[in-house]
């Protein structure tokens, strides 16, 4: 801190620093420290909003400039939230082999991927000729998918999504493959047969097509699936 050139002080003396001057100097020192350890382009929690301010997605705070944000990352609140997230992810079994400078080890960073649109798709109704089970065959086209990336799917309950009002009559089939947008298909809330050969997925590396087959359990299977000694699909 500059003690002798402050307004109101004698040359070579330097009066008592005000609280605002002390805070400004502390923020500047923290900003310089953060600049040596953090690259904002790689910070998963750094976000510039539409009005030009900077936001911390981890702490949900708003900052007027990058210096204020960098000082915030070195503060107690941000570091505490990083530690809490690391502990939670370690408890959930989410490992992390890489670390970003300035972030605590064990924190899984969010990837900022520029989306290029939705994949092409085709949905076909099918029926198993042996069990007469109804199902769906999904085909997704990912011609510009990131090399080495394989699309993944997930069946989501109506209470996990936050787009529509929860309705127990439906469930959601979600497919993701970077850099394409994640797509979702709304399905009836019927129990899916997860036995081998009934539920499967396959990605064709040559044609860049992702195939997923879903077969629903029959009414009999759903009715007796919880009966002891009677396996699902048993005749």
UniProtKB/TrEMBL annotation:
Xref: Pfam families: SF3A2 (PF16835), zf-met (PF12874)
Protein name listed in UniProt: Matrin-type domain-containing protein
Region annotation (Disordered) ranges: 1-25
Main subcellular localisation: nucleus
Record-stated family: Belongs to the SF3A2 family.
PROSITE patterns per the UniProt record, alphabetical: ZF_MATRIN (PS50171)
Gene3D superfamilies: 2.60.40.2690
Residue ranges occupied by any Matrin-type domain in the UniProt entry: 54-84
């Amino acid at each position: 801190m500059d003690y002798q050139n402050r307004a109101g002080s004698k040359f070579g003396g330097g009066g008592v620093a005000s609280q605002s001057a002390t805070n400004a100097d502390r923020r500047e020192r923290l900003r310089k420290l953060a600049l040596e350890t953090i690259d904002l382009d790689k910070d998963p929690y750094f976000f510039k909003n539409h009005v030009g301010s900077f936001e911390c997605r981890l702490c949900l705070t708003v900052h007027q400039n990058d210096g204020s944000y960098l000082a915030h990352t070195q503060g107690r609140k941000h570091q505490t939230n990083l530690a809490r997230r690391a502990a939670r992810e370690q408890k959930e079994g989410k490992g992390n082999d890489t670390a970003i400078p300035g972030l605590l080890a064990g924190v899984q960073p969010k990837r900022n991927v520029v989306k290029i649109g939705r994949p092409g798709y085709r949905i076909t109704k099918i029926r198993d000729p042996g069990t007469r089970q109804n199902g769906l065959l999904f085909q997704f086209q990912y011609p510009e998918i990131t090399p080495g990336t394989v699309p993944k799917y997930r069946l989501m309950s109506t209470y996990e999504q936050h787009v529509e009002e929860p309705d127990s009559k439906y469930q959601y089939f979600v497919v993701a493959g970077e850099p394409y947008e994640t797509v979702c298909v709304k399905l009836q809330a019927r129990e899916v047969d997860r036995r081998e050969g009934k539920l499967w997925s396959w990605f064709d590396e040559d044609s860049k097509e992702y195939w997923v087959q879903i077969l629903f359990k029959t009414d009999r299977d759903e009715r007796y699936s919880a009966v002891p000694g009677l396996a699902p699909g048993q005749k």
